[in-house]
Design brief:
CATH architecture of the domain at 6-142: 3-Layer(aba) Sandwich
Number of strands: 9
Structural class: alpha+beta
Strand content: 25-35%
Shape: globular
Strand order of the largest sheet: 1-2-3-4-5-6-7-9-8
CATH class of the domain at 6-142: Alpha Beta
Bound molecules: coenzyme A
Number of helices: 5
Distance between the termini: 30 Å
Largest sheet: 9 strands, mixed
Amino acid sequence: MNKAPRTTMNIHRPDVQAMKFEYEDITLALVQDEDSIELFHLIEKNREYLRQWLPWLDMTKKEEDTKKFIKKSKDQYAQKKGLQFLIRKNGVLIGIIGLPKIDLENKKASIGYWIDQEQQGKGIITKSSEIVIDYCINELRLNTIEIACAIVNRRSKAIPERLGFKKVKTVKNAENLYGTMVDHDIYILKKEPVPNKK
Ligand SMILES: CC(C)(COP(=O)(O)OP(=O)(O)OC[C@H]1O[C@@H](n2cnc3c(N)ncnc32)[C@H](O)[C@@H]1OP(=O)(O)O)[C@@H](O)C(=O)NCCC(=O)NCCS
């Protein structure tokens, strides 16, 4: 996976919803209304596995809930406050990588992700994160990217660690995971954008 991704994207353009990245057999494209059934089926397939790590599974019980998530994501695109990319392999939906909190003013964003259990361990989230980080730094001109992981989520923590993030702190009781308060490790990447060519 070392070829540069093909991209068509710019958060500042009116056609932001057409934003897309492609590398090898993987595509990242912004989630759209027509994705709701496929996305809901992927969540259903992975419900028990994802529920170990993510707090929203019990709020996503029917396709209608996925539609609400997509609507919220599209509202965020419109306000330039967030982006949610569906990850497809050879056209088949396998996961999501998102920037749920883009802060253009303060030049920072956070990244979240999950992938179909069967597609784990192939480097797909690592590579997708690299692409999204490059977009944040060099297109959105951000300089701080954050990833928060439960302290026991070894696979998730391996991603920022592999990509050169620094662990800056542990937040106690950061998230209520179905009644259990979970501590998070917070990873930060600070980078200067490549200067624009004159
Ligand atoms: C955490 C999660 C997103 C990781 O996704 P992933 O696609 O499996 O991550 P990657 O494959 O990029 O991670 C690298 C793993 O693949 C291996 N790998 C294989 N090929 C690779 C490649 N070309 N490049 C990098 N790593 C590669 C690495 O050795 C590593 O294996 P290990 O975790 O067994 O040590 C996934 O496990 C998941 O969805 N978990 C549940 C939800 C969740 O926890 N989300 C995060 C909440 S903070």
